Amino acid sequence: MKRQIFTAEHDAFRETVRTFLAKEVLPHYEQWERDGIVDRAAWLAAGRQGLLGHAVPEEYGGGGNDDFRYAAVLSEEFTRAGAPGLAIGLHNDIIGPYLTSLATEEQKRRWLPGFCTGEIVTALAMTEPGAGSDLQGIRTTAADEGGHWLLNGSKTFISNGILADLVIVVAKTSPEGGAHGLSLLVVERGAEGFERGRNLDKIGQKSQDTAELFFNDVRVPKENLLGELNGAFVHLMTNLAQERLAIAVSGIAAAEHLLEITTGYVKEREAFGRPLSELQHIRFEIAEMATECAVTRTFLDRCIVDHGAGELDAVHASMAKWWATELQKRVADRCLQLHGGYGYMNEYRVAKAFTDGRIQTIYGGTTEIMKEIIGRSLLG
Predict the structure, then answer these.
(1) Most CB contacts within 10 A, which of 183, 285, 295, 341?
(2) Quick one: which of 18, 29, 94, 98 has its CA closest to 51?
(3) 243 is catalytic
């Protein structure tokens, strides 16, 4: 079915993204995978191409266009290219809104220009060794010392953790923590007592640096409080719908691309003297996946339109996230199976998609959390 949500301007932007990927990302990607990190030059190149800060107001160096469809195009093309390591979506769609909606004028002028050029790479530090989706379990503390906050604690699984120049840290600023005692503090590269641990060894997304972060008596200036004191819970909840939609967009794009690859493969690969595509079982597998992708795409495109109109609620964002990412996981598994032994080889796209995509049902809120949000909304 022909998609109805994009204009000629979005199509032109898609070509720009494809050109950027072909020139600045794909020739270097295998090396980044071996290194376990993306070259900073790629972030600067993304900035020069106008791929960073698309929704940031022009006065701070951004594109001044908050149309989420451009973010969707970026996500779809990076997913199709198999290049999740350059975490532009995290930077633009998840962290960007915190800076544009919560930062003071002084903070915007200090941080947003570099955010848009790629000179400032960002990260969000919420997850701890003992606290993932459960904000009540956060133990990192920030004590009010008068002229500054004294930050102590640790975080883990932090995307962009090694490269990040600016880290938004979720910390307890009152004894109760949780919904009424958490704040967002911005820690900048070079702060005394701020240390990065291991670049974590993951099963997929090898070039995306994911790290442990440690804060030992870090003096955070009072002017680095982002948003309201003790208001982090509300701030985090406000931006979750877009975060989950962005992950869902990547999920359906991955499933569609895997189906495209596998459809081509079974037409060429022979078994028992004829192409796999002539076997009824194979045709049924392809038919089922194609139908699931088509139905999911229709729902996701509706969610993108609703989000652009400010009408996407947490429940439907949760539906999109869990369904699209679980579909991605199922399609990756079935497509790998249809590739046979070749599907287990890293040189085949389906193998990397299988491992790179496995995190999708976990980060941004697990499938189980998504179902709980949906079920609670229906059953009280």
Answers:
(1) 183
(2) 18
(3) yes
